[in-house]
Each structure stands twice: as C-alpha cells, then as structure tokens.
Specification:
heterodimer; A: alpha+beta; Arc Repressor Mutant, subunit A; two-stranded antiparallel sheet; 53% helix; elongated; B: alpha+beta; 5 domains; 28 helices; Permease_put_prefix (chain B); ABC transporter permease (chain B); transmembrane transporter activity (chain B)
Chain lengths: 112, 868
C-alpha cells in the first residue's frame, strides 16, 4: 500500500478544501476551521499548509479574478487533486480498518 | 460602503517582508479576515488578530511558494532543447559569415596541423612494438669510455646464453651489406641484406608468408626475401624454391617469403641469409670470438628479469664479468637496450641507420598541442570580442525564462558545431597534405578513418577543442544580468579585456618561439654545411670498389689516370661519413698505462692528402717513393695529443696498432670523419693495400662527363656489376637528414601558427575598428590624419606583441640552447635571432591589422556619424 504523508492539520485543511469545493481559499479555509473545530489558528499556519499541500501534489491552485472587495487583489483558489482525494480515502480506510480491529471493550470509559 | 482598513504601518511591514510571489493573495486574504473579525468582535479584536496573522506570514515563519520560473521548464538536455541549440547555432554561423569563416579556418588549420603531427608522433612511438615479446627483447650494447656502440662480439650470444639462465634466447644479426641480386634479366644491388641466426624468426615476430620458419634459416644456401623483392625479381610473391644469384658467384634457394618489413621497425631488410652461410668465410663466426665487435646481438630475457631494472643491472655486471674471464683485457661496459628504445633513445655508433629522436617527438607533441591551443584561443577571442552582439540575445533568453545551464549548453553546442565542422574540413586538409607531409618526413603515414582508435581520438580532439574554445564564451556570456543588458549598452568589463589580451599574448608567444626555433635550426644546419671539415668536400665523387673492381685496382687506376677529367683519385677504406672500424689495441712510445681510448683507423693511399686537400702539420704523407710505408702510420692532431706528443716530436715515434709495429711518419690536421654530432676523435691512417672506395676529385662543372666516363670504365672492368657512384658532399648533407626534416617541419608549423594567430588578430582588429567607428569619425572631423588613426588602432596590439616578445625570448633561448647541446659543434645563439623573430612577428601582425585600421581610417566620417 502506498504510504501517504499527511499530517493531522494537513488532513484537516485538505478535508475542508474538499468540503468548500470551488470556494476554497485562505479566508474561507481559516473561517471554516474556526467554525468547525473552534480552533483559532494563525493565518500563517493555514497559508503554509496550503503551500505544503500543493508541493505534495494534493491540491492545485490558480489565481482567481480580481474583485473590488479586496482592493483589486486576486484570490488564490485551491482544489483537491486526484492524488489528494486518494490520500483522504486511504486515511479514512485505514482508520475504519483500525476501528474494526479494536476489541469491543477497549473503549469502555469505566475501565480506566 | 466604507470597509474598515487595518493600519497602514502593518500593511507596509507585510509588503516589505513577505515573499514577493505570494504578497498579493496574502494581503487580500488578511484584509478580508480583518473585515470579518471587525464585524464580529470589534476593532480591537480585529487589529489584534490582524497583527498576529501578519507576524505568522513573515519570515522566518512563512513558507515560500516555489518560484514560478521553475514551472514547466524543460530539462536542459532534452532533445527539443538540443535541437534548438543546434538550430540557433547554425543560424548564427550562417548569419555571421565572415566571423564563421575566420573561426572555422583557424580551427580547421589548427586541427589539421595537430592531426598530422600526432600521426607522426604515433608512428615514432609505435616502433618495434609489434613483436610479440617486445618487452622481453633487449639489444646488447657496449661502451668503452665515451665510445658507445651498438655492436657486440660474435661469440657472445651463445656464450652468454649458456652461462646465464636469465637469457632465454639470443640472435645475432650482421651489419647490413649491399649485395648484387640477379634473377632472370633483373640485376640490381640490394642494400639491406642481413645474415641472421636460425632463431631469427622465433625471437622476432616478422610474419612469414610462405616457407618454414623453423628449418629454413638452418640451411646454408637458403635465403629469405621480402614480398617486395619477390615481386621485383619474379613478378610474383610465390617464389619459393626459385634460385637467386648473389654477387655474381653464388646461387641461393629461396626458402621463405617474408612480409615487407613494417615501416615502424628499426630493422629494415630486403633479404635474410642464414648465419651458417657467413660462417663459411667469417673467422668471427667460426671461432665464436669475443674480441671483434661486428654483430648486433639481441637477447630475449625471462619475464622477471625483463621487468626489473635491478635484475638487468645485475645481468650486465655478470656479462662484464664473463667477458673479463674470457681473457679480454679491455675494459668494456655492457648495457641492455630495450628493443622498444632502439628507435628513439639510441645515440650509438655503428648503429643501423634511420633512427628517430625522442627529443623531436616531445618537441613536436608540444608543438601540436600549442597549435591547437592557439586555434582555440582564436575562437575564444573572437567569441568574447563579439559578446556585446550576443548580449541582447542572452538577455532576452533569460527574460523569457532560460536559466544559466541552458545558455552554457547553448554556447557549448555552438562551439561543438564549429569544432566538428572544422574536424571534417581538417580531415580533408590532412588527406590533401599527407603526401606532402610524408615526403617531408620520409615516413609512410596514413590516415585510416575506419580505425576505431583513430576515429575515437579524432572525435576526442574535436570535443576537447569544442569544449575548450567554447568554455570561456559559455561561462562569460551566460553570466550577463538580463536587466543590465537590455537596459542599455553593456560596458565590456575590464576583466574581460585583460583576459582577451592575455590570450593574444599567449598566441604570439607560441608563434615567436616557433619562429625562433625555425631560425635556430636553419642557422645550425647552415653552420654545419659551412663548417670547415678539415678537407675540401666539394667535387668529390666516389665509386665503391665492388665486384671485380677490387681485384683490378691497377687497371682501374690506369684507366682513371688516362682520363683528363679526373683531376685526381685515391683509394680509401671508408668514406668520411661513417667510419666504423676502431680499436683500443694501441701501444705507443712512452705509454705508461694500457690505452682505454678507441682509436678509429682509416686506410688511405698515397694520394689521400692531395685529393682530400687535408693539411700535413708535421712529417709527410704516404709516398710510393718510400718502400717502408706499409708499416708507417699517420696520426691526426687529436691522436697526437692523446698519446702525449706534440708536432715537433711526434714524427719518428714508434706505434703499435693492432699487431703491427711501425713508426709515425706524419701528423695531419684534424678533419671530420664522422657526423658533427660527435666530437673529434683520434684517428690513425694506414697505408691502404686492399681497396674500399675510389674517391675521385673531379674538375668543377664536369660532373656529368666524369660520371659517363666512370660508367664506361666500370663496364669494361666490371661488366657483371651495375655502376654505382655517389657525391661525398651529398652524403655529408644526408647525415643531417633528421635535423633538416625537423627544420622543415618546424618551418611549416611555425608559419601555420603565425597564420592562425593572424587570422584571430584580423578578426579582433576588425571588431575593434567597428566598435570605434564613431570615435574615428569624430576624430577625423576634428582633423585627425589617416596615419594618426592607423596608429591609434595599432597601438594596443603593438603593446601586446611587445609583451609577447619579452615573454617568448627567455623561453626560446632556453629551449634552443637545450637543442643545440646535442651537437658537439654548434652555432652560437645570438640575441639578434630572437630580435629578428620578434620583428618578423610584429611586422606580420601589423600587416594584418593594417587592413582593418586603414579601412577604418579612410572611411568617410559622414557615414559613420550620420546614424546619430
């Protein structure tokens, strides 16, 4: 099985990009993370992760059209690539397989 | 709507420090987030979040997006790019015709030169390496004091082999003797006939085309001839079993046909006769003597001894000991000369003719290298000079996205195209010049293009030339900063100019050294030709007394005396071009220790002094009026000095030479009886009673008639033998054949080196003149004269050439002194030779530059200035 190198935060960002579809860019990703997880993250970590994901080939990006709301500055829009999709699927499969392997009583909180 | 804005200072900080290629999107995103936070939690919260975000996208926290330039860049050596390099290179070559012609001409002439020289060098180095056990074969040579010789005694080969286990085999070869061959109607004197022991073909790997190698040389009366001789006498190479008559008295049966001697063998023969045949009359062979040094002895050593120098030294000491134990009183040292060293490292007397010289091989190898370097320098120079023209192209390519590697590959590709084009032309030139060159070097050289090794080295030369000559332009041009180039005129950097000047100086240093070399070789040859040999060499004709002439000496003398054309004649045992006899066995009055100096001897008759016009310092020459002269000796000055006598007391002293006692009756002034490479040796003259060579002094201008008359006399007295004759001065000139060859090869290549340098200079001066067109226009408008402008343009080059002269002078001085040391008599190396060479180089260079500078100076200034 091909190994996927995907960190926890990277996985989160990748999932959010796929959720956002065509609307994924720095701002929406940051806002969505905050809303979904309650984590307040610095924009720098989102920005860096987006670049890293692109280097790994999990997402691709292009500059969108200029809009007046940003003072004429273009957005960089991100999209999950086929490789990114496989990576997500792989991780999910791995997790569910591991869950299935787990003995039933392991997670009973009362035992702790 | 008025959207809230983060503080300006924070934005400035962001713009200033954030990586350039992501600033647009990041700034936009941060603004949006600010607005979002502002609306949700107020200005303070928003500002706090904004500042936190700004810091998180500043270095060192921010991750840089890989530069956009790296996207979609093809691999520098991808086929498409390669195609592009070659296409652009080809377009450049075609577009700049004059420049390309200069470059290709220079490179191809340079390459052709070096290929020719390398062919020659390779041939010289390949001598005697074709023998299967070449590294185990050695020649036994010996030396007595300064007298070093290639010959050894007849008994040594077998005697040493019997006593020393290191010696696996030994073969003796006689000195070459000319013999009259006769088969059918053909009757010619063959000069290269040897007697050899029966194991000759076991030791040496000369291929035998027909016959039995193992048995044939054991049979006296058998003969091996080469294919060429077989064709010559029988018209077919299948001549086994046929008979050949030799010297008009004995028939030999052809027992084997050898392939023609390879041209790279130091042993060159037409026929081999078994040593057993020689044993019929040779005392040396019958008795296996150890005293007479008349044979070349080749020894095959075992592999262990052959590989170790110390084992060989031990062996030579053993040989010397055995020699001494044999009762030989003379002190002689023996050496083992490797077979492969014979051609290039031999300076022995009584050696086979036709030797090379390792010094010349080295010199020419260096010359080949230098000529190639000069050609490369040319290319670099022209390319660098024109770099301004290419700068725009480089700038544009860089802006469009080329990186440095691609530009380097492009320029190297261009120079490789140049060098391979030149290689093709150079091979053409070599094919054209090869006949001339073989005539010059007297070697059979051939260029076999299908020979893989040669092809590989030729391609190697081309690649090397291409890379070398393309290296500087490639590294220099590719380094241009595109903005600077495209903005305006690129100022040629000082370093570039310095480098170019250094290249020009190097070129001229090489050219001047070669010129000095040519001059000195010529001067030395002239010196040798004009040197007083101690006798008058002009108008001396000689006739070897072969066949019946020897017996009919009196009749020959009588018919010569009748002929008014012969001014005078004498019979002499050896010509003063190569005197081969000599002995240590000399005893004189007042001698205290045993003599260790080799005294050559010459048998002359009564007319010798008169015919050779040599000078008698004391006493008299031989004279038929004195009946006791058969036991008298005449010595030369050098012999007199060695014997401790002087002009006033030498005459009348007793002298025992060999076994014969006698008295000294005269002293002659030293005359040269060997090549001028050897210092004067002592000489003892004896009265000739047997024959040798008839030397005739003819009257000037009557050579043709004299030869005709001689031919007639030969026909009457010696009808069985063809008429042969020679001129002594021609033979003397032939002694310096290799020096003459070296001189003419030097001449050729010095000329070519200068020519190539001048091609480069021509291109450079054209470029310089073009670059300064406007300046010249302004100067002319302001009243500059044509001469002034020419001077202005030539001055820079003149400076460079002067520097080159200063550098070349000591190099040439040192090199030529080294060469002259090889001669015992040498011309002096005078300063004016170097000055002359320098002046010549300067003159040629100025002449070259003058074309362009005069053209520039004469140009109408209106034309050059109108464009602005």
């Amino acid at each position: 099985m091909r190994r996927t190198y995907l960190g926890e935060f990277e996985e989160l960002v990748l999932l959010i990009i796929s959720i956002l579809g065509r609307e994924a860019y720095g701002v929406t990703v940051s806002r969505e993370i905050e809303q979904q997880t309650g984590r307040v993250v610095a924009f720098g970590s989102v920005h860096n992760t987006l670049i890293r994901l692109e280097e790994k080939g999990f997402v691709k990006s292009e500059l969108g059209g200029a809009t007046t709301e940003r003072g004429g500055r273009r957005k960089r829009l991100f999209q999950v690539t086929a490789l990114g999709k496989t990576a997500l699927a792989d991780i999910q499969q791995l997790r569910s397989r591991l869950w299935k392997l787990m003995p039933d009583d392991t997670l009973k909180l009362s035992d702790i | 709507m008025n959207t809230p804005q983060p503080p300006r200072w924070a934005k400035t900080l962001l713009r200033w420090l954030h990586p350039e290629n992501t600033i647009e999107e990041v700034e936009g995103d941060l603004d949006e987030l600010y607005v979002y936070a502002y609306e949700r939690s107020g200005k303070r919260q928003a500002l706090l979040r904004y500042l936190l975000n700004v810091v998180s996208v500043l270095p060192p926290f921010v991750r840089r997006r890989p530069s956009a330039a790296k996207y979609n860049q093809p691999f520098s050596l991808s086929p498409d790019m390669l195609k592009n390099y070659f296409k652009i290179a080809w377009r450049n070559i075609v577009r700049q015709k004059a420049y390309s012609v200069l470059n290709i001409a220079g490179l191809s002439i340079g390459m052709a030169c070096s290929i020719l020289i390398l062919l020659w060098v390779q041939n010289e180095l390949s001598f005697d390496r074709f023998h299967a056990r070449a590294d185990q074969l050695f020649r036994l040579t010996c030396s007595a004091g300064d007298f070093k010789t290639a010959v050894s005694a007849a008994g040594m080969a077998r005697g040493l082999q019997a006593q020393l286990p290191q010696i696996k085999g030994g073969v003796r070869i006689s000195k070459p003797s000319p013999m009259l061959f006769e088969a059918g109607e053909k009757k010619v004197e063959e000069k290269r006939v040897f007697y050899a022991d029966s194991n000759f073909l076991e030791v040496f790997s000369f291929p035998l085309l027909a016959g039995n190698a193992a048995t044939a040389l054991k049979d006296p009366g058998a003969i091996f001839i080469t294919e060429e001789i077989a064709e010559k006498y029988y018209g077919t190479s299948d001549a086994i079993g046929k008979t050949i008559r030799i010297n008009n008295n004995e028939n030999f049966v052809i027992a084997g046909i050898l392939a023609n001697t390879p041209s790279n063998s130091h042993l060159q023969f037409d026929a081999i006769i078994p040593m057993k045949t020689m044993a019929r009359w040779s005392q040396d062979i019958q008795n296996e003597t150890w005293g007479n040094f008349n044979f070349y002895t080749y020894l095959e050593l075992d592999a262990k001894t052959a590989a170790s120098a110390s084992a060989q030294q031990q062996l030579t000491q053993q040989i010397a000991k055995i020699f001494k134990d044999r009762g030989q009183a003379v002190k002689i040292d023996f050496q083992l000369q490797p077979l492969t060293d014979i051609h290039l490292h031999s300076n022995l007397q009584i050696d086979l003719p036709g030797h090379g010289n390792i010094q010349y091989v080295n010199v020419f190898f260096v010359v080949a290298l230098f000529i190639l370097i000069v050609a490369c320098i040319n290319f670099m120079n022209l390319a660098t000079a024109r770099s301004e023209r290419r700068a725009k192209e480089v700038g544009l390519r860089k802006v469009v996205g080329a990186n440095r590697h691609q530009l380097v590959f492009q320029f190297l590709g261009e120079s490789l195209i140049f060098s391979f084009l030149s290689l093709v032309i150079a091979i053409g030139i070599v094919c054209l010049l090869l006949p001339v060159f073989t005539m010059l070097t007297e070697k059979t050289l051939a260029i076999h293009l299908l020979d893989g090794k040669l092809l590989l080295s030729l391609i190697g030369i081309a690649v090397l030339t291409g890379l070398l000559s393309g290296s500087y332009p490639a590294l220099f041009l590719s380094g241009f900063a595109p903005v600077k180039v495209l903005k305006g005129k690129l100022r040629v950097a000082g370093g570039n100019l310095l480098f170019r000047n250094a290249l020009v100086v190097t070129q001229f240093v090489v050219a001047i050294v070669l010129l000095v070399g040519t001059a000195v070789v010529y001067k030395q040859l002239d010196f040798i030709k004009k040197r007083n040999l101690g006798f008058d060499k002009s108008n001396l004709l000689y006739l070897p007394m072969s066949g019946e002439l020897g017996e009919k000496k009196q009749a020959l003398k009588a018919s010569l005396a009748q002929n008014p054309l012969m001014e005078n004649f004498t019979v002499i045992s050896d010509l003063p071009t190569k005197l081969e006899s000599g002995t240590i066995d000399v005893i004189w009055d007042g001698q205290t220790t045993r003599n260790q100096v080799v005294f050559p001897s010459l048998d002359v008759d009564e007319n010798f002094v008169k015919v050779f016009k040599s000078q008698v310092l004391a006493g008299r020459g031989f004279d038929s009026a004195f009946s006791g002269d058969s036991s008298s000796y005449i010595v030369n000055e050098k012999a007199m000095q060695i014997m401790g006598m002087n002009v006033s007391n030498a005459v009348g002293q007793n002298l025992t030479f060999g076994e014969r006692k006698g008295t000294i009756i005269g002293v002659v002034k030293d005359f040269h009886f060997k090549s001028l490479q050897y210092a004067m040796e002592p000489l003892i003259l004896r009265l000739n009673k047997w024959g040798g060579v008839m030397v005739i002094r003819t009257t000037a201008g009557n050579n043709e008639q004299t030869i005709k008359a001689l031919e007639k006399i030969n026909q009457q007295l010696n009808p069985a033998f063809p008429f042969t004759f020679g001129f002594l001065d021609k033979d003397l000139d032939n002694l310096y054949r290799s020096e003459q060859q070296m001189g003419s090869i030097f001449n050729l290549f010095a000329g070519l080196a200068i020519f190539i340098s001048c091609l480069g200079l021509y291109g450079l001066s054209a470029f310089m003149a073009e670059q300064r067109t406007k300046e010249i226009g302004v100067r002319k408008v302001l009243g500059a004269t044509v001469a002034g402008v020419v001077g202005l343009l030539s001055r820079d080059f003149l400076k460079l050439i002067l520097i080159a002269i200063v550098i070349a002078a000591p190099i040439a001085w040192y090199a030529m002194n080294k060469w002259l040391e090889g001669f015992a008599y040498q011309t002096t190396l005078e300063w004016w030779v170097i000055a002359l060479a320098g002046m010549l180089a300067t003159a040629i260079a100025l002449f070259t530059i003058s074309f362009q500078s005069i053209k520039a100076a004469l140009m109408n200034p209106v034309k050059s200035l109108r464009s602005e």
